[in-house]
Amino acid sequence: MRLRTMERHLNEVLRSIWRNGWLSFASVVTVAISLFILGFTTLLVLNINSLAGNLESGVEMTVFLQNDASPGQIQALGNQLQALPGVTLVQFVSKEQALAQIRQNMGSQAGLLSGLGQDNPLPDAFQVKAVNAADIPALAGQVEGMAGVDQVRYGQGVVEKLLAVTHWLRVGGLVMMILVGISAVFLIATTIRVSVHARRYEIGIMKFLGATNWFVRGPFLMEGVTLGFAGSLLAGAVVYLGYSYMVDAVQTTLPFIQPVDASATLLAVVGGLLVLGVLIGAAGSLLSMRRYLRV
Amino acid sequence: MIQFLNVSKHYPNGVRALTDISVAIKRGEFVFLVGPSGAGKTTMTRLLIREELSTRGQVIFTGKNLSRLKGREVPYLRRKIGMVFQDFRLLPNHTVFENVAFALEVIGAPGRDIRRLVPGMLARVGMEGKKNQLPSQLSGGEQQRVCLARALVNNPLLIIADEPTGNLDPDTSWEIMKLLADINEKGTTILMATHAQEIVDTMKRRVIALDTGRMVRDEKGGGYGRAVENNGTSS
């Protein structure tokens, strides 16, 4: 496109956006809300995933042994565990060590344990670490069937629950984003329709003067894209500033939670929002032009 | 340059705007298209700029069958045809200069062409002194001059004028007709639909008369109403 044409189109676009006033404003805000929901849920999901990842990678399994297991059986089981593919570390924790560990954890309240007398209710156990956190459930299944094993424990539940939460967040966020996004597309389409209507006389003249279809469409496409982009800038700014603020707040009040703070991630999310804003704007324009701009 | 071969145009609502029109117009001719309102004059011009397609028959312009023209070729057809209207169709909030420049802008002409061509064209229609005025500040005749300048600035092969004097008083009408004759003199073909009996009778050009969609006369150097019953219903 020639520079002169570009300049012409841009002038038309700005005039049109100004003339459409509230409609332009509503379009921009709707795009912004839709993209804000998307950006916000995306960051939330990323954080929960990372949290779940941390929990998962911390998981090791504990293999409790039957009380009547003989030292020979324990020895054999230890070797068997060590030989499993994907297992990195196997450590034997005797019932005495376990009790001492509990006593230590309880500190000043350790006196409560004196009621046990000489009895130790704890079983012997193996601590098993795997290379891959995801392998643990399968490994646990295998180990449960081995001779002398009473029970296998790992972080069953917590990780699954977190992942379920992210799943629903993702679905819910996406559904909301799509609903609001569709309204944004239609609102932009309406805005463009009003613009086309306002300029129908001029369009008629352009057509008999031999303007190509894309020359006629150009300003309307640009108008939609501009509205979409403005909305995405707004959403991007809110997401960027809001998230930075939240990260600060979380880090001071809940120091044990590590939010995803790679600014590269945040920038990628914001960049994605900008691209989507442009696409929403273009979709709205094209929809309207198909129906109201017969060229 | 223009050929209508057994052209009929029927609208979906049952109106038969044109029935079996066959006519040929050569390059450089000046042709009046006459007939009462609703005779099909405007439909003929619409077929020529491919605003509409014929129902039957073929419209040929510079050797191209317009029914076979692809949608994206239509703008390039229209660049070869300058249009002049009874109601001028100027952009109200653009100056005289901008209105003429608009014809070049919409076809993507560079700024230097616009600066070079527009003043010359305004001088040719005698409007160079009012290039910064808005259409609302001009008389009807002046607006029609601007319209002519806009139609001419792309150097078209054909000018289609649809009742160009319809809104003008007789004196002003003659000024416009002199301009059109001058333009024709320099080689541009002119097809003018009109009700202006006096103009047609005086100019002694080729006359094609339509009545209720049929061609009833095609006469070189003819008058307005010789073979066609003209009951004065011109509007």
Could you characterize the architecture of this molecule?
The complex is a heterodimer of chains A (295) and B (235). With 295 residues, chain A is α+β, with helices and mostly antiparallel strands. In chain A, 72% of the residues lie in helices and 8% in strands. Chain A contains eight helices and four strands, in the order αβαβαβαβαααα. In chain A, strands 2-3-1-4 form a four-stranded antiparallel β-sheet. The longest helix of chain A is centred in the N-terminal third of the chain and has 56 residues, at 3-58. Chain B has helices at 41-48, 74-78, 96-105, 111-124, 140-152, 170-185, 197-203; strands spanning 2-10, 16-25, 30-34, 56-61, 64-65, 81-85, 158-162, 189-194, 206-211, 214-219. Chain B has a six-stranded mixed β-sheet with strand order 6-7-8-3-9-10, with helices on both faces. Mean pLDDT of chain B is 91; it is low at 227-235. Chain B is an alpha/beta fold. At the A-B interface, α1 and α6 of A face α2 and α3 of B.
Layout of SSEs?
The complex is a heterodimer of chains A (295) and B (235).
Chain A: H1 3-58, E1 61-65, H2 71-83, E2 87-93, H3 95-106, E3 125-130, H4 136-144, E4 149-153, H5 158-198, H6 200-208, H7 213-253, H8 263-292
Antiparallel strand pairs in A: 1-3, 1-4, 2-3
Helix pairs in contact in A: 1-5, 1-7, 1-8, 5-7, 5-8, 7-8
Chain B: E1 2-10, E2 16-25, E3 30-34, H1 41-48, E4 56-61, E5 64-65, H2 74-78, E6 81-85, H3 96-105, H4 111-124, H5 140-152, E7 158-162, H6 170-185, E8 189-194, H7 197-203, E9 206-211, E10 214-219
Parallel strand pairs in B: 3-8, 3-9, 6-7, 7-8
Antiparallel strand pairs in B: 1-2, 1-4, 4-5, 9-10
Helix pairs in contact in B: 3-4, 3-5, 4-5, 5-6
